[in-house]
Amino acid sequence: MKLRSNLLPLLAFLIFTPIAKAQMCPCEFGKDSTIKPLRYEIGINGYTYNEQLINFSWNRSYFQKNYIPGIKIKRHFDHFSARLGFDYTEAKYELETSGVMYWNKNIGSNYSKTLKLGIEKTVLNNAFQIFVAADLVLLSSNYSGITEGWGDIAPYYKFPYNFKLNALGISPSLGIKYRPIERISISLETSLSILYWQTKGNQSPYRNESSTALVVNPIGLLSLNYHLFR
Q1: Closest by alpha carbon to 57, among 2, 104, 110, 3?
Q2: SS3 of the chain: helix, strand, coil, percent, to 5
Q3: In whole angstroms, what separates CA 73 from the centre of its chain?
Q4: Which pTM value belongs to this model?
Q5: How far apart are CA 123 and CA 16, in angstroms?
Q6: pLDDT per residue over 24-38, tens digit each?
Q7: Chain centroid, CA 50 distance in Å
Q8: Segment 177-217, tens digit of pLDDT
Q9: Helix, strand, or coil here: 92?
Q10: Helix or strand run (H / E) with residue 8
Q11: How many Cα atoms occupy the beta-carbon half-sphere of 122 within 13 Å?
């Protein structure tokens, strides 16, 4: 999956970020200035819907739902927040492509571990809060299964594969947070990930390769958060 030419969402993020006002972090609640803000936040990610880095003979985007909880920890300062997150995902897939002169089918499973470290900035601070963020992303995925097919210059084949994919990049995000009460909030983030990735392992009949990709994360995370420590 190569770097896409349509970067309008990323450009919108880069334009929107500078208008952020210098205000307190997203740990304020209410209008009472005598109450100190809550400085720490622990979130449990309950659902994601993200594009996957599949480098098979697959010419369309592949999105994966995930319900395995992840975790995100934030430290709120006066004008920005530092954040650290970890997510684990796993799924089974069946991908098939065909044309006049070729056919390919991949059946398998994958699991991924993603570590993110970044900063966050609130641009609207009320019960509903809007924030932007940028994360450094470290991704490690394993894929295994059976690939089979045939082509105009290749006879029928059927091989097992097992390979590892590593990726490193950056991920700008746009999020919204709702705080029904002081210490509880719900967050929803959407993001892009610009990643350099490479594969290593047994991928017959594919070869190890590397490239750059723009990955779309419609629901980068949906989390329930608890705020603590003034």
Answers
A1: 104
A2: 5, 65, 30
A3: 16
A4: 0.82
A5: 9
A6: 566 666 666 677 788
A7: 6
A8: 998 888 999 999 999 999 999 988 876 556 788 889 999 99
A9: strand
A10: helix 8-16
A11: 23
Number of Cβ within a 10 Å radius of residue 74 = 24
The single-letter code of the amino acid at 185 is: S
Tell me the sheet residues that pair with 82. Answer: 75, 119
- Decide: residue 5, CB within 10 A, 0-12 exposed, 13-18 middle, 19+ buried: exposed
Could you tell me which CATH number the domain at 8-13+42-228 has? 2.40.160.20
CB 111 within 8 A of CB 120: no
Integer-rounded Cα Rg, in Å, for the chain is: 21
User: Cα–Cα distance between 48 and 69 in angstroms, integer?
Assistant: 9
From the list 194, 189, 171, 179, the residue with the least C-alpha distance to 227 is 179
Q: To which H or E segment does residue 62 belong?
A: none
- Evaluate whether 193 touches 217 at the Cβ level (below 8 Å): yes
Asked if omega into 205 is within 30° of 0 (cis), the reply is yes
| Helix intervals (H) in 30-122 | none
User: What dihedral do alpha carbons 121, 123, 129, 132 form, nearest 10°?
Assistant: -40
